[in-house]
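Action item from last week, closing it out:
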Amino acid sequence: MQFTTTSGRTVNIADFRTRKLDREFQEAVSDGLLVNTDGSMSPIPAKNVQRANDILVMGMTGLSQTEIDTMPTADYNEILAKINEEEAKKSPAKKS
């Protein structure tokens, strides 16, 4: 799918997240996370979320780390939001 940010940057977003990309994303989010024997977990370091989001954007758009590092934050946030929005549409609805 082609997506254009408010500022006019156009990127192609993949139609789906591959298992490899999902695994890399989950590994980045949970890096250093500890699960205790009682099932409780240590807090997730905030930097993990940033790195995981970069992995997701790179994997879904084909952009390089340098390209996302040098784009305006507003464009990055719009692209990330669009990726998350599309993924949410594909997720089965949660039942109460």
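Closing note: The first strand starts at residue 2 and ends at 4.
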